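In the previous lecture we treated proteins in isolation. Real proteins rarely work alone, and many bind small molecules. This record shows how such a complex is specified: first the sequence, then the SMILES for magnesium ion.
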Amino acid sequence: MAHGLPGVTTTAKTGGDTAPAARVTGLTRRFDGRTVLDGVDLTIERGEFVALLGRSGSGKSTLLRALAGLDRGTNGGLEVSGAVAVAFQEPRLIPWKRVRANVALGLRAADPAAAARALAEVGLADHGGAWPLTLSGGEAQRASLARALVREPGLLLLDEPFSALDALTRITMHRLVLDLWDRHGPGVLLVTHDVDEALLLADRVLVLDGGRIAHQSRVATPRPRHRDHPDLTALRATLLERLGVTPEGTA
Ligand SMILES: Nc1ncnc2c1ncn2[C@@H]1O[C@H](COP(=O)(O)OP(=O)(O)O)[C@@H](O)[C@H]1O
Ligand SMILES: [Mg+2]
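The predicted 3D structure, ligand included, written as tokens:
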């Protein structure tokens, strides 16, 4: 996919290729003279699950949009391997197209069997003929994931995809995303403001601050993870501190 960004090169995914899923070097973005991204360096390995934390307005969505090729105002180096797919907080389904047709929008060439397979994978096999407005919030987000995965991306970008869902649906979606990631193996960048979500899902958790990746923690805890695992408790404290959140009970 051609991003059309300055300094951007893209490479096609091939069997012997060991290029990372994405590599960003010195990525800079200014809005009206204000620097939001200030030379971000980031590599996402193939099949690696990376979570990106940061305060509201720290530039998380700006970085994700750059990786998605949706922002032409970015400077710096950006390389991605294979197809890139994005899912946002809002499912962004087209209301006048049935669910099946919405999923097929993720494909370059019509392939009804692939769309049906993707729907089955997210548990919506029976909803292909439904209209988006008849879906629950969780179902609509599943359809959005199916549309992203149907193109077998090398890089899957998720911008707070679960924040609008209720707590129980969110747990189900976490399991689904891990299951899909396991089966398809894309590199993932998950933007979230939820430290626990990052710790439950990711191999590596980054904190964006001051326009750069200011901190990273590796999460080696085997999955499925429980939020009370001692390793995660320690990492949670570190990450909250990095985010400028003071623990309860202290000043
Ligand atoms: N298109 C835009 N025009 C002007 N300012 C923008 C634009 N997009 C984002 N910003 C600004 O850049 C900063 C980072 O935004 P964003 O990446 O959406 O933050 P986050 O996703 O971390 O909450 C914010 O101050 C936001 O107002
Ligand atoms: Mg955002």
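Summary for your notes: The longest helix spans residues 167-184. The two ends are 50 Å apart (CA to CA).
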